[in-house]
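so my prof wants the structure for this chain in the tokens format not the other one, which i didnt know existed until like an hour ago. anyway here's the sequence
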Amino acid sequence: MLIAYFKPIPALRWLIALLAITVTAGLQWGFEPGQTAFADAWLRDHFIRWQADAAEDPRVLVVDIDEPSLTALGPWPWPRARIAALAENLLAAGARGVALDLVFPESGDAEGDLRLAMLAQHGPVVLGQAFDYVKRPLALRVGQLVEGVADNAAAVPATGYIANHAGLAQARHAGNIGFIPDQDGMLRRLPLQTSFEGRLYPTLSLALRDCCAGPGLEKKTQDGGILPLKFSREWSAYTVVPAVDILRGQKDVPVAGRLVLVGSSALGLSDRVSTPLSASTAGVMIHASALSSLLDERAAPWPGAWLATLYAALVAGLAAVSFPRLSALTSVAILAAASAIWVLLAYGLSSHDPGFSTTGPLATNLFLLAVAVPFEWQASQRRSRRLLGTLHQYVARVVVDTLLKSDAQDPLAPHRADVTTLIADMEGYTTHVESLSMEDAAQLTSDFLGCLTRPVLEQQGTLDKYTGDGLVAFWGAPLAQAGHADLALDAAKGILLEVMAYNAVRRRAGLSPLRVRIGIESGLAMAGDFGTAQRSVYTAVGDSVNTASRLEQVARDLPYDVIIGQGAAGRNTRHELIIIGEVVLRGKEKPTTLYTFAPAAALP
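here's what i got, hopefully its the right format
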């Protein structure tokens, strides 16, 4: 039976929806930083480029040891005294603090080292030290680390380091200038806090902010772990000054009140990385971008991962509910629209939460496209074959199509329904066929049944069965129909017209006309697929069906072709009827009022 087949379908449908949601959830929480899927990185990189602001950041100044500076003052490495002079000039010009994106693992000139050490111990100067995150056979241990702090905050573990020489190890502030590129070599995040041998070390931008940003700007963000880089400003938004201008005391350099990062864009110093904004960027600009993000006064990040998962759940739930009722093409269109909407939402959300997977819901939609759409198509095909084999024998095509779209688990299962039954047959069938050959009798029967059947199906009726020279049909099952009594009365008029046209043909052939008798009644009945596993039939049984049969039999004694019962007359809204009397039908105790079409309305 159909119920046995369709019972597991809803469970499978919701299982597919659940798996689709886990695709997004897995992308949100199942990857370590740096393992972002290529598609997610590609989409987020485009978001970053589209959203980057060109407005100047007046809080940050980048001092660049660039090629012109090296040409003017000599090749790298510079004397340590020159580096100290660079920091002194910046502080003298009013810089809030100076961070060096440089490491000095070996001693330089004694005077310069001493001046730099004094600045680092007593002034707002942050030295650089680089941590290594790669497991190597021989861990890096170069120089002496500036002492970190003991803390249990979230941090990225390091395997080694390259630090400054021992003479600079007493600095008050030091920042990590080490990077962790993603698998594609692109730099999209920084280790905000690094853990090494039980102590924490901040990244350079965080160390500069905490040491020198001023009251009210310390610890504005929750520090720890990986910092996804927002790259909220284009590189042109940062004021970049050649180091030679600072060393020569150029007066118009905007230093006062700014946090200064000193680094190098010179190709010879090999401090260049790839970012979403450009294929080759000076490393100091990464720290400038991170510093801007840390200084920006923003609310806590939006829960992008949860919002993406919620969106995926909404789409998966919509698919589970709607796909069974839609065509495959419409389902694909819905997924395409849902994907486009998500891209727009993700574009806005990415500026508030740089750490979630932007492609999670897109992956869910792709999963639904690859699994849910074919599943529903296959289920629809199987359901169609099972239903069509039975229903097309009894029901108009429009009713079958509506049933298939309704996704009813078993539309043929027996159920109580308000139906209108029409029973029609030929009066005097035996008299008409007794003198005919077998072939002519069969043709007459076929032609007459055609006159009865076409109007029934045109009015969306369900053909119950043929009774030799007649038929039984009903409306209101398997599909509930508003105005089913009116549809049955329309079909009765259509039968009268068909028989009239057929009789005209018979008269021209010199044959006697045929008379059709029709009984119609409405009421509750049990409609459904009745029978056994070996053989079954879709039918309706009940008192109203029996009454329609009695009405058809009464017509033989009355001059009316169509006899309508009280139930059908009471449900009629469009046809003009007249009362023709009361009769006690066989099996009934009380008289039944009989109706028929008014003479002027007997035919359309």
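also thought this was worth mentioning. Confidence is low (pLDDT under 50) at residues 1-7, 217-223.
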